[in-house]
Amino acid sequence: YYSSNMSASRSVDGRLALVTGGSSGIGRETCKVLAREGATVVVTCIDEAGAQETVTLLEGSNHTAMRYDVTQFDSGKELLKSIIQKYGRPPNILVNSAGITTAIGLLDETPETFQRVLDVNLKGTVFTIQAVCRELVAANMPGSMVNISSRTVGRPLKNISAYVASKAGVDGITKCFAKEMGPHGIR
């Protein structure tokens, strides 16, 4: 749900937001809303050209596109290093929207396709939260983490078992991170 009448306490004006999977779909639309509400947006995707295209659609200035492979642990560290170098601070908003699915029945799912979905959807979420939260904690800054899950966790459909499993993991890890990071002002 989005309301254009955001309260001042929920304002993103002046904040720095990092959006994974920002080249299309939910990620791109999230970037547009954040920019319209006054945030500076770092749009990331494994396809930097797609991320750059999103930047051209955003209101305001000083947004940037960066290539980021959410499946690579060290890639998150490098991304945060680049963001801090450019903006002088870590992002205090993270939206994990990078995600993939396959339309493969459970009996036809291969270890490789199953693992790829888990790598992008679950490990990518964890790795990115870790990278951002480490920097926020070190800087003693509050922050907001938003992880995109799916209603299919509670209402599964056929032929997307890897996707449902990955998003159930995202739900669980989100609750764990909230408990661990809450004392640091990170929600």
From TrEMBL:
Keywords: Oxidoreductase
Pfam families associated with the record: adh_short
Pathway where this protein functions: Lipid metabolism; fatty acid biosynthesis
Single GO term (MF): quinone binding
PROSITE patterns: ADH_SHORT
Recorded family membership: Belongs to the short-chain dehydrogenases/reductases (SDR) family.
The name this protein goes by in its record: Uncharacterized protein
Organism annotation: Homalodisca liturata
